[in-house]
Amino acid sequence: MPVTDDLALLIDAAREAGRLATPFWKSNPEVWDKGNGAGPVTEADLAVDRYLRDRFAAERPTYGWLSEETTDTDARLTKERVVIVDPIDGTRSFIQGDTNWAHSLAIVELGEPIAAVVYLPLRDRLFAATKGGGATLNGEPIHVGQCGTLDGARVLMKKGILAAEHWQGLPPLFDHKFRPSLAYRLALVAQGRYDAMLTLRPTWEWDVAAGVLIMEEAGGVVTDRTGARPLFNQPHPAIDGLVAGSAALSNAILERLTQRSS
Predict the structure, then answer these.
(1) What is the pTM of this model?
(2) N or C terminus: which one in the chain shows less Cβ crowding within 10 Å?
(3) SS3 content of the chain, % helix, strand, coil (to 5)
(4) What is the span of the domain harbouring residue 217?
């Protein structure tokens, strides 16, 4: 299947997911706690997950499937291509009535994302990329910024990352902001609106698979917190944190981070 066809399917599916999820927003959707620190899930998450799962099963029956809201099995590990989705990335934001939530959809081939979409329906922002084909926002090319210095860099992250334990020497003087959706954070850095994003916690593949490709195709560098390039469709689908930005800034961050567990 040509990757351009896969991207077209991702775009159409993401837009339809937005049409499905939006009526639940600010309409008191039913909410459950998934337990074990996994956070909340709403009836909107589940409705979008069912729609996407059914659509890809029908239109890409040979592809594997990995979603935050579907019980995982090892069947995907035998597939060359796998669909990896977060039906709503930023569920807490969705519940609170904020607009910074997204649908995050990617297709991975042999461990690497080859087509990706991050779509924010309430902001009408559709970030997309194919491997080797560049990255776009609403059809227009986007590129990462070229900031290479730590102090003053605009970084999307949680404030707790600036704790001294995470850094060799004094913590950098970042101009730090926060967005609840990891996919959106990656997309904003790809767009050049921020210089980097950083998380030190184990990160689920469905949160970042799409954003990683968008970042890389916009000219950025993405690694885990040890400096290794993330691979996807792993038996345990989690990554050891994430560092994303220009090559110079990503390297500068990695050089200053301690390597103890967060």
Answers:
(1) 0.95
(2) N
(3) 35, 30, 35
(4) 154-256
